[in-house]
Structures are given as C-alpha cells and as structure tokens.
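Late entry, evening session. Most of the bench is empty. Finally got around to the prediction I had been postponing all week. Sequence below, unchanged from the version circulated by S.P.
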Amino acid sequence: MISGGVDRPTLLLVHGAWHGSWCWDALRAELGAGGWTTRVVDLPSAGQEAGVQDDARAVLAELERIGGPAVVVAHSYGGIPVTQAVAEAGDVAHVVYLAAYQLDVGESLLGHHGAPVPPEPHGFQAVPDNPVPVFYGDVPGAEADRAARRLVPQSTKSFVEPLTRAGWHTVPSTYVVCEHDRALPPENQETLAARSGAVHRLACHHSPFLSMPGELAALLAEIAHGSVGPAA
C-alpha cells in the first residue's frame, strides 16, 4: 500500500490529446487506496475548438479549487497547457511530465516536431488510425479497445498555439520517460527530459496509467513525498 503523512499535496492529473479525465480512473483508484487525494480536469481542446490557452485556464481553475499544495501530473500533450498554467498558479509544489511535452516559451507541439503550422488553424486532428498500438501497446486487449472507443477529435489549434510562459523554469519538475512509447518516441522524451530536475524511466508504452497503474502510483507517491519534504 502507498502511504504518507497528513501534509501530502493533492495530485492534479491532466490528460493528453484525444483523451479525457476518464483515462486516470485506474490510477486514481491505486492512489486513493494509499490515502492520496487526486483531482482531474477535462481539457476543452479534446472535442472542442479550443487552444493551449483555453486548456491552461481549465487547469488553473482546477488548481484554484484545490486551494492548497498540489503536484500536477501531465501526460503527453497535457504537458503544454500545464507548463503555461503553473507559471501563473500559486502553491504548485512540483510538476511531473509523464511522456509529456515539456516545451519552452514560443514552442508548440507541431513546431517541436518540425511539422508545418497552418496559418489559420481551424478544425480538428482526427483520432489516429489504429490507436491501440499507438497508445495502448501493453494494455490488455479488451481494456485497450474500450479506451480507444472513448477517444475524440483533438483541436488543431491546440497543436499550433505556442506557449507564452513556461512554469518549469521556476517550479521543480520531474520527467518520466516511457521507454517503449510509440506515440512520443523515447529519444524525443529524453531530449525533453533534460529540462527537468529529475528523470525516472518506466518499461512501458504510452499509457502506464492503464498498463501499470500500481507501479505508476508508487512512483508518483515517491515524487509527491519528495516535493513537500519528509512525511509527518
């Protein structure tokens, strides 16, 4: 069991592109069993024509509702609005980038990959073809299929809108590299991870919150403990 003291921060879990807060359910159960309080947010860019700034405002609003020390866990695209939001938020003890985009000011998702940026980014990026091997390569088949059916189109604007602030310059951060990832290649993650203060690695594909929620919960508990010092 994952245990801790009474002064533990709340963990805010922020999903990636095409996903929703539902993807954290198994991880939240593991963390809850150890007495950790978790919160989630649904980013408007998943299913709506919203951008990074809209998503960052959603993250900020949830942090304000928490009203106390928080560790923010960002997955994949979620790292971008989280990076923007924590630069403006108070009482964020730590950011965990889980196979996530730890970008800097002026950078965007498509720009990071050297992809062309449309001058007027409207519409949506369709759910990738064959999402199971891309996102859920090590998730049991039936569970992976259920997750794939819940994916929604992602706003193009969210992939092209650049950051105007980058909170990891002032808020401590940890990067978790998913070593068998097929969505964000591990070598790309390693480059991004150089911006974090600490790096951990998991032998998993892109979605350890589904494939190994117990192991991921233990790692996040360890990081969260360290973010506020020794437990009482």
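Two things to note before I forget:
The mean pLDDT is 94.
Residues 52-66 form the longest helix (15 residues).
Will write this up properly tomorrow.
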